[in-house]
Amino acid sequence: MRFQDILEKNRAWVDESMRRDPQMFAREASQHRPKMLWIGCSDARVPANVITQTGLGEMFVHRNVANLVVPTDNNLMAVVQYAVEVLQVGDVIVCGHYGCGGVKAAMGAGAPPLVDNWLSNIRASVRLYADELAALPTEEARYERLVELNVIEQVYNLSRLAPVREAWAAGRTLRLHGTVYPITTGLLRDLGVTVDGAPLQLPAHERSDARAPQASTADAFDDTRSRPSVVMR
Known about the structure:
single chain; alpha/beta; Beta-carbonic Anhydrase, Chain A; 7-stranded mixed beta sheet; 7 strands; globular
């Protein structure tokens, strides 16, 4: 596809949108009230609004390589702060995907230097979950499980960010979700690690059962003794 093709497709989209709803652009220009924040991968095959079928203005979106939540990333932090404090979204969704090149690269070597540095955040999870991953029978199984574990770790990271903790301390409803998108089927998978109401006290890797090969994904944040106010869904 050429750049000129993009311009032509844009014009066609505007014409069709105006035909169906003459006030659409004027209405969208007058307000910006998304109800959720999406943190996803930059992979071109995982466009947030397409796979969720959300319309203009419904979802605030941040994407980076391998859908990471890194507290030292000013871009990510600005997005989260604006979404939580100004837009006051009620849900934050972290979405990973099977077939993620970033996760795959983190399991090996050879990524470009800046990408390699970024992926060090995933390599930390590779070390933390080494026993669980090693117990899986194939490299593909380890790869897919790491995709899931990476999402779980990013939901944990979100729960520790100041804007999120301050929203909970103020009594705001703010739910954090972890999902995975299979490119082969298109059906979003809820990992069952929704957190609502308090920051997590322990990351998954600090619990004795987190490395057990048979532990369910939903159990990754299950430590109600140390955080009784967390609501798991």
